[in-house]
Amino acid sequence: xxxxxxxxxxxxxxxxxxxxxxxxxxxxxxxxxxxxxxxxxxxxxxxxxxxxxxxxxxxxxxxxxxxxxxxxxxxxxxxxxxxxxxxxxxxxxxxxxxxxxxxxxxxxxxxxxxxxxxxxxxxxxxxxxxxxxxxxxxxxxxxxxxxxxxxxxxxxxxxxxxxxxxxxxxxxxxxxxxxxxxxxxxxxxxxxxxxxxxxxxxxxxxxxxxxxxxxxxxxxxxxxxxxxxxxxxxxxxxxxxxxxxxxxxxxxxxxxxxxxxxxxxxxxxxxxxxxxxxxxxxxxxxxxxxxxxxxxxxxxxxxxxxxxxxxxxxxxxxxxxxxx
Length: 324
Ligand SMILES: [Mn+2]
Prior knowledge:
With 324 residues, the chain is of the alpha+beta class. It has two domains: 3-121, Histidine kinase-like ATPase, C-terminal domain (Heat Shock Protein 90, 2-Layer Sandwich); 133-318, 4-Layer Sandwich (Phosphatase 2c, domain 1). The chain is 29% helix and 30% strand. It has helices at residues 3-20, 27-45, 76-80, 94-100, 171-187, 192-202, 287-290, 294-305, and strands at 50-55, 61-68, 103-109, 113-121, 133-138, 148-155, 158-166, 209-217, 220-226, 229-234, 240-243, 260-263, 269-274, 312-318. The strands form three sheets. Strands 5-14-13-10-11 form a five-stranded antiparallel sheet, with helices on one face. It binds manganese (II) ion (MN). Residues 165, 274-276, 310-311 line the site of manganese (II) ion.
């Protein structure tokens, strides 16, 4: 695709996504400008680049993620000053992106590429994403609808997540995972084993699903999962600790729910993904990858390890000292 049509398509898709996310006024147009600036950088300078346009994790707006393996920027802050041009024009346009976005997270490494997450929120919405929450959901190639879903219930210092992979893919899988989200949102403060039992009862008439439930508090994380949704805790010093689910299918055969609770040091992140993302990343990840802010770690895993024949969801929730 030529440069002009790729950028044009990105702008149109961003405008449409913003409208779907119920953003009004000038926001769809601002989303279009964000997407065209980011797409333009990817098309001009990068290889293996992509733009992901989705609802922000807290549902208050739209997020635009740009991923590439291009030349990278030595100094993203400098590139944001309008008028700055590096060799070529990599980074020009980022000044506009910074002015327009409500929240902007960028990491770039010369020779490796650039990750950008720009978010726009509806006016007056309490922004709860923060850089501490990242999520990407991608339907299998050729499917309109994802059979994966995820949801979050928050209280003051606790985040509870459900990540659901409806069996198979397409609309019947989506039916199971949507039902699970509905039940979860109404019961998200229950102890995790009871929550899993409720999901099991509620999914009996569906195809069933793999489900990971996580409860994240300052200093700790609990996991209760059945079926193949992968969960790991990553720390800034480069360790990855996996938390194992029980085999089974929620809605069909539920093993006795088992809760694993582990300490989560400050700066660690909970990483959850369905099997539409390969788990090879967890074997030998670079420390630079594990230090990425949550929205960008989600993007790097989703873009770099996606298996396009299945629905794919990646959720990353960071921890900060004493806060959620
Ligand atoms: Mn799957």
